[in-house]
Structure formats: C-alpha cells, structure tokens
Write a structure and sequence with these properties.
Elements (H helix, E strand, L loop, with lengths): L5 E4 L3 E5 L9 H5 L19 H8 L7 E5 L15 E4 L5 E4 L2 E4 L5 E4 L2 E4 L23
Antiparallel strand pairs: 1-2, 2-3, 4-5, 5-8, 6-7
C-alpha cells in the first residue's frame, strides 16, 4: 500500500495526516467539525479554528493518523525516551499502543511510531499490522 502523508499549515502549526493509518473513529470530525470535514476537499480547513483548539483536537486522534508540529520548532521524528508504553484493547476495535515503539513488520521493514499506534485485532485490515477500520464492517466483536 502506498504511504501518503499530507500536511496542512496555518503558519503557526502544521497538521500531518497519514490516511493509511486512519481508523475512521470520527473523533476529529465530531470534536472540531469546522476544521475536520470529510465531505469537503481538502478535508482539513486549518484556518477554521485557532491553533490551540486544533492542537487539542489532534492530540485526541486514537490512531496517530493525525499529528502536528509547531512551525517554530524543528520536527523531531526520533522516539522520545521519557515515555512509557500503555496497551489498550478497545471494545470491538483495534489494539491501541501508547508510547514510542519500533514496529518490525513480517517482511523486515522497521518503523518508529510515536504517541498512539492502532493495531488490527479483527484480522481484516488491508494495512496489517495496522488497523484500517475494517472492524466496523466485518462484525468483529472483542
């Protein structure tokens, strides 16, 4: 699957969206619909709210598909050493891993993940080991 990354900036903050890891929880849309509107193109209207509100909403993304960085700070993609790891099995949904981890896929590809990573539990994801939201349509219970 082709990895896509899109960036939206208001000059102060840049929101980064990685659609391949989005689990379509709609938390962004439900929390700040004037900014996150999947019926519009582009679907992120970064100018529709203040930086603080946008940052607070992005922090609630359960999959890590949405992230941000402040434009006056250098983007640091290295894992943060001060974070612990928490693993949460969501009801009828993905396994969420909070913290900085290294994921080694079956083909040997390694990827650093920061903040929250959603792993498939239903077995139906087309983006394994990550959740792609298939659990919502395949009847997964767990």
């Amino acid at each position: 699957m082709k990895e896509i990354t899109k960036k939206y900036t208001n000059g102060e903050v840049t929101v980064v969206w990685k659609p391949n890891i989005c689990i379509h929880s709609a938390i962004c849309f439900n929390g700040l619909p004037q900014v996150f509107d999947p019926t519009s193109r582009p679907w992120i209207n970064i100018g529709a709210a203040g930086t603080e509100r946008i940052v607070n909403q992005v922090k609630q993304c359960p999959s890590g598909a949405l992230s941000f960085y402040m434009n006056n700070e250098q983007l640091n993609t290295e894992p943060k050493a001060d974070a612990g790891i928490l693993i949460e099995a969501t009801q009828n949904g993905p396994l969420l891993v909070y913290g900085n981890i290294l994921v080694k896929e079956s083909g040997g590809k390694e990827e650093n993940k920061n903040n929250v990573t959603a792993f498939c539990r239903c077995g139906g994801s087309k983006n394994k080991p990550y959740c792609d939201g298939t659990h919502k349509t395949n009847g997964f219970q767990g």
